[in-house]
Amino acid sequence: MKASPRIVDGSSGGRSALEEYKERRIGEAVFIDIDELSDQNNELPHMLPSANQFSHHVGKI
Q1: Any idea what DSSP says for residue 35?
Q2: Of 34, 1, 28, 29, nearest to 15 (Cα)?
Q3: Mean pLDDT computed over 29-41
Q4: Are 39 and 49 a contacting pair, CB within 8 Å?
Q5: For residues 9 and 21, is the Cβ–Cβ distance under 8 A?
Q6: Which of 8, 29, 31, 56 meets the CB 3.0–4.6 Å disulfide criterion with 25?
Q7: What radius of gyration do the chain's Cα atoms show?
Q8: What sign has the CA pseudo-torsion 42, 47, 49, 40?
Q9: Are 32 and 8 in contact (CB under 8 A)?
Q10: How far is residue 35's CA from residue 47's CA, in Å, rounded to a whole number?
C-alpha cells in the first residue's frame, strides 16, 4: 500500500498557531501541536521525541 503525502502545519512562534490554522490553511492540511509532539522529558523546548513517541503522534493524523 502506498501512502499519499500529507501537508502538516506545525507552526509556532509566540502566536496561536491552532487559531491561525482554523482561520486559514492549505487545502487538506492537518495541524499538529509541536508542544505536544516534542520530548516532554527534555527541559529544552521543542526537542525531538523518541522514534516511538513520534510515530504515535504522527499516526494520529
Answers
A1: H
A2: 34
A3: 88
A4: yes
A5: yes
A6: 29
A7: 13
A8: positive
A9: yes
A10: 9
Q: Report how far residue 56's alpha carbon sits from residue 61's, in angstroms, rounded to the nearest whole number.
A: 10
**Residue recorded with cell 482554523:** 22
As separate numbers, helices (DSSP H) first and strands (DSSP E) second, the chain gives 3, 2
**Can you name the residues that pair with 8 across neighbouring β-strands?**
30
Say whether pLDDT at 1 is over 70.
Answer: no
Query: E strands within the chain?
Result: 8-9, 30-31
Looking at every residue in the chain, the average pLDDT score rounds to 85
pLDDT of residue 25: 80
Query: Which grid coordinates are listed for 6?
Result: 500529507
DSSP SS3 for 8: strand
**Residue position matching grid coordinates 503522534:** 57
